Structures are given as C-alpha cells and as structure tokens.
Amino acid sequence: MQVSQRVVNLWGIIIGLVTNMSHRFKTIIISGLIFVISGCASQLSEQQYHTEAQLIEQQLQPKLQGFYQQWHGVPYRFGGQSKAGIDCSGLTQLIYQQVLQQSLPRTTAQQQDVGDEVDIDELFVGDLIFFKTGWGKRHVGVYMGDGRFLHASTSKGVIISQFNQGYWRDHFWQARRVVNGE
Predict the structure, then answer these.
(1) pLDDT tens-place values along the chain, 182 residues long
(2) Is 142 helix (H, G, I), strand (E, B) or coil?
(3) Which helix (H) or strand (E) holds 19?
(4) What is the chain's Cα-based Rg?
(5) DSSP state of 126
(6) Which of 88, 143, 147, 158 gives 71 a disulfide partner, CB atoms 3.0 to 4.6 angstroms apart?
(7) What gap in Å lies between CA 122 and CA 129, rounded to an integer?
(8) Largest pairwise CA distance in the chain
(9) Contacts 24+ apart (CB under 8 A), 142-148
(10) How many CA atoms lie within 13 A of 97 on its CB side?
C-alpha cells in the first residue's frame, strides 16, 4: 500500500472515531491533529532549507578553493590590494567581488557592521569571521566550511586556517552573513 493511500485510510479511521465523541473531546483531538500536521509541514520546509543550503555550500567551496589557489602565499601588506601584497579586509572584499559577485566595504571597521550577525554554530560558507587580535585590532576572513577560514595572515600571507581551536578560537569575536552587500 502506498503512503498516500495509508494517509487516506488513517484519516477515514480518525473521522469515524471523532464523529462518535463529545463536542469538547472532538475539539481537543482536532486541535492536536492540526498541531501535529503543522509541525510536520514546518519540519519539511526546514529540511528543504538545509538541503538547499548544502547545495549552495557545495557550489561555493570549490570556487573559494580556486580563489585560494590563485592567491595562496601572497604576502600580507597593510592597505594592499594586489598580488604584491594584500591585507585581510582587502582580501575579503576581493573574494566577495570575484567569487560571490557582491560588493563589500574596504575596511574591517566597515565590514564588521555589514549584514547580520550569525551564531558561531550556524556558520555558512562565505560568512565573514571577525577576530579581536589586540587592543583596537581586528582581523577578518571568509568561512570555508569545516572550521576553516580563508584570510591574509600578517605572518604567512594568504592562507586557510582552522578557527575552532587555539589562537583563532580564543580571539573569535563575531561572524556576519552578508546578503547582496547589505
């Protein structure tokens, strides 16, 4: 028997039982069924959302990896925006332009206010990750998935690092999701 036929049969049984009950009990049963059905519907849409998000991440990861291959090892240079040297916010701005086709402000101070703040447990590939690295010093990178982020390190140039342990985990400040440069 198909699932849809089972549902029809189940509804027939439920209707038969409900017709023999008191009005008050019918109201309770019907309210409960509506609650259960609406819960299933919202769960389905949440599953669809996660499936679509996974597909987007699967498309973004190779693009970010390709970008990284082109820029890997480029030295850090404050204010730089070329392969001769680039700083962290210049790199994130370039990633957003070339990979995500979105505009992003130039400086870390400007980028830290763009988009919506995201909980660390809900990071999505492409989210901006910010760190407090010293008194008045901020650092930014782009989340790559699996606890990794792409950034311009002052000591190692353009690299991918793990942010969920050690130095970066201790200095994590916030993450932001940017949609269409807003």
Answers:
(1) 444 444 444 444 445 544 555 555 555 555 555 555 555 545 546 666 566 667 778 889 999 999 999 999 999 999 999 999 999 999 999 999 999 999 999 999 999 999 999 999 999 999 999 999 999 899 999 999 999 999 999 999 999 999 988 999 999 999 999 976 56
(2) strand
(3) helix 3-19
(4) 25
(5) T
(6) 158
(7) 12
(8) 81
(9) 142/64, 142/91, 142/92, 142/95, 142/96, 143/175, 144/61, 144/64, 144/65, 145/57, 145/61
(10) 10
Cα distance between residue 112 and residue 45, in whole Å: 31
Q: CA-CA distance, 151 to 67, in Å (whole number)?
A: 11
From CA 151, how far away is CA 20, in angstroms rounded? 68
Please give the positions annotated as active site.
Answer: 88, 139, 151
Orientation of helix 3-19 relative to helix 23-71, angle to 10°: 150
Token pair 């409960």 is at which residue?
Answer: 32
